[in-house]
Amino acid sequence: MSERDNERVMPRNRRAVSISWPPAPTDRGVAWPVTEAVERTRETTALAERTQQITITVLADRTQEIGAAGYRPAGSASAAGRSAAWFRRVRRVPAGLTAVTSLALGLRLWRLDATGFNSDEAVYGGQAASLAGNPNYTDLFPVFRAHPMLVQTVLSPLFRHGEVDVAGRVVIAVLGVATVLAVYLVGARLYRPRVGLLAALLVAVMPYHVVVTRQVLLDGPMVLCATLTLYCLVRFVEAQAVLWLVAAAGMLGLTMLTKESSIVLAGGVYAFLALTPTIRRPIRSCLIAAPALVIVFAIHPLSQALAGRANTGKSYLVWQLLRRPNHSMAFYAQTVPVAIGLLVLLAAGAGLWSLRRRHSWRETLLLCWLGVPVVAFQLWPVKGFQYLLPVATPAAILAARGLLVVPLQQLIRDPRRALAVRVAVIGTVVLSLLVPVWSSINRRDTTTFLAGSGGVPGGRETGRWLASHTPSGSAVLTLGPSMANILQYYGHRRCYGLSVSPNPLHRNPAYAPLANPDRSLRHNELQYIVWDAFSAKRSVFFSERLLALARRYHGRVVHTEYVRGVDAEGRSTNVPVIVVYEVRP
């Protein structure tokens, strides 16, 4: 072999060494002289083996980190293959999911009838009863008010006859449990089934979600639809299929049809798509999905127009836009974090920080779903305890991710000890939710009340007393419209709120104001006055005025509802919360 041939062969053999070494022996032996080249190839072989060992070690560590983070490994597998693998993993957690579902159902049904309806529950229950043609409510509660009628329509068959409250709450509680299952689906699809299972457990025992879904409110069903919207959006990002985008738009329309204020979630979807340029957003797909949202939500204004109540919807819209603030700007900061769980928010933040270098579209989606409603409702003048309930889903998923992802192995070298610490931390977070939620659902007597946080003690009993001890057709003057709604629902008597403004821009269009309450009492158009401690704490002025009217027209106490409280010296005693006066000219 010539010198030139030898130069041509050696590079070819070197490339062979880098791919597969040692080469297969042949009858002709090695293709170059056994001289200096042999030593060089031995060094190359040793270096290749060492590099291979380092590469395998790094890949193994990376795979373990990714598995701990809850991500599915990216690869060239098809969407059908990924779905099949996902369903195989889902089948491993039926027992845990069954336990979580049972716990969620138990917490939402335990002592569900301990207190009667609050004002919002009375309104929605009265709407459902009027829609069903219940004669006890058709003259007291108009069908069309401020919100769409999807939930009321679903409940209406239960309110067809008599007085109903517990059955309606059971339906909302079941929908709340369905939300727990939907949270599991979203968490398992975004990360892994164990993340979804822990997120479902956090929502199952979260005081915020448990308290709201124990009431006949629109927010519980709305969050179920919102969570399913989030699931469809996740499927669209994964599969890039137009069908899932249309499904997400339709579910968002259904969410808005449950409660129109959920339109802020459309801003979350827009923010996510704007902040994630890697997701394909074809114009044609968007043009197909947008009509799905519009067509579904159009049921609300169309039903009002067909019923001849289009002006009612416009009046409520103007009133909602011009309502004065009912709470301070610090209201949500003071109430919602505690209801969600401070440790839950801490776990979510820890997970985002510890994995900040592996940020993906998943975290962007959850943060947009959480951040946009918080900003929107914080800026909105009118605030309600249950308005931010949609943020419970992303908060729980991010917290579950953080609890399962925080790299304890970097702090604790012993794997068993690290696992024990992780289990202890998860147990502490769950216990921090379970203790307050158990206390809240077992607490019946209280002299304070926050709208959306539960039933009103004594309201149901006072209304039933009015129904059985006052003549049919009697009229009642209450301190505000909240107690008026409750007494109308349980007492079947027309009630007027003293604090209802005669200015149509400053009152709910459904409430009839009294231009001159003194004149109505003097002409015997009002026979009873009801004072309640809950409204009195919010409006001292109207409380003093109501009591002055009771004294002026010879008010006589005929019924009182008490709760257990403490007196000025700290001793336990019965505290009056609702007092009924019979008045005469």
Q: Which regions have little confidence, pLDDT < 50, spanning 5+ residues?
A: 1-22, 24-35, 60-77
Task: Specify the number of helices.
Answer: 25
Strand arrangement, major sheet: 2-1-3-5-4
Rg of Cα set: 32 Å
The helix/strand series, from N terminus to C terminus, equals HHHHHHHHHHHHHHHHHHHHHEHEHEHHEE
Distance between the termini: 130 Å
Overall 3D geometry?
globular
Q: Report the count of strand segments.
A: 5
- Main beta sheet strand tally, sense and closure: 5 strands, mixed
Can you tell me about this structure?
- The protein is 61% helix and 6% strand.
- The chain is mainly alpha-helical and 585 residues long.
- The chain folds into three domains: 3-66, no CATH class; 93-442, no CATH class; 459-582.
- A five-stranded mixed β-sheet has the order 2-1-3-5-4, with helices on both faces.
- A hairpin with a 5-residue loop joins strand 4 and strand 5.
Provide the descriptors you would attach to this structure in a database record:
five-stranded mixed sheet, 5 strands, disordered N terminus, 585 residues, 25 helices, mainly alpha
